[in-house]
Amino acid sequence: MERIxxxxxxxxxxxxxxxxxxxxxxxxxxxxxFAEFRTRHRExxxxxxxxxxxxxLQTQQIMWARWIEIAASHERDAMKALDAxxxxxxxxxxxxxxxxxxxxxxxxxxxxxxxxxxxxxxDRRRIDDAAERITDCxxxxxxxxxxxxxxLLDNLTWLFERRxxxxxxxxxxAPTEVHPAGLNTSAEMAHFNGQESxxxxxxxxxxxxxxxxxxxxxNRRVERWIDDRRTYHxxxxxxxxxxxxxx
Length: 247
Fold this sequence. Notes:
The protein is mostly helical and 247 residues long.
C-alpha cells in the first residue's frame, strides 16, 4: 500500500508542476522524468513480486462495502423473523441464524474499513483490543474530536463483544432471558435477534459515515482515499442507510 501511495503522490506532484510550467520544454522535461519514475516504480514492483511482467490488469474488491451489504441483507431477514415470532410463528431459530450472520458481518465491515485506512497514516502503537485499536486508527485518520472518539469506542466495544459472543461461545448452560418477542428463551436467542442485528448495522453505518465525511482528515492520502471511495458510499452504503429510519 505504501508504494501505491508513493506513486499517487508523485502523480499529483507531477500534475502540479506541469500546471505551473512556463514553457513547452519544461513540460516535456517533467513528462519525461515522470515517465521514467513510473517505469522504475513498475520494475521495482515486479522485482518485489507485487505485479507480473507485461500487461496485466490489477483489481481490488472494497471489502467493507461487501460486508455491509451482507450485514444489511441478514439484518432484514432477522427483523422479518422477529416480526413473525411476535405474531406467534416459530421463527426464533431462524432469527438467531440470521442475526449471527448480521452481527458478525457488521463487525467485519468495520474491520475491513480499518484495514483500508490504517496504511494512510503513520504506524500507531500496538493495541490488542480490536475496538480500541480500530477507534485509535480511525480517530487519527479522520481527526475525530474526543466526544466522537469516545462514542465510537463505546459502540465498537459493544459490537465486538457481541460478535465474539457468537463466534467464541461458552459451552455451558445459562438462565433463560426475555426475548424481544416477549418470550423466555436461551441467552443466545435473547442476544442475537432482529433488534440486536439492527443495532449492529447502525454501529457499522456510523463508522462508515465518519469515513465518508470525516471532521478533519489527517493528511493528503486520507483526503485522496475519501475521494476514491466516494462511489462506494453513494452506491452501496447510502441506499442501505436510507432503509434505516433516522440513520
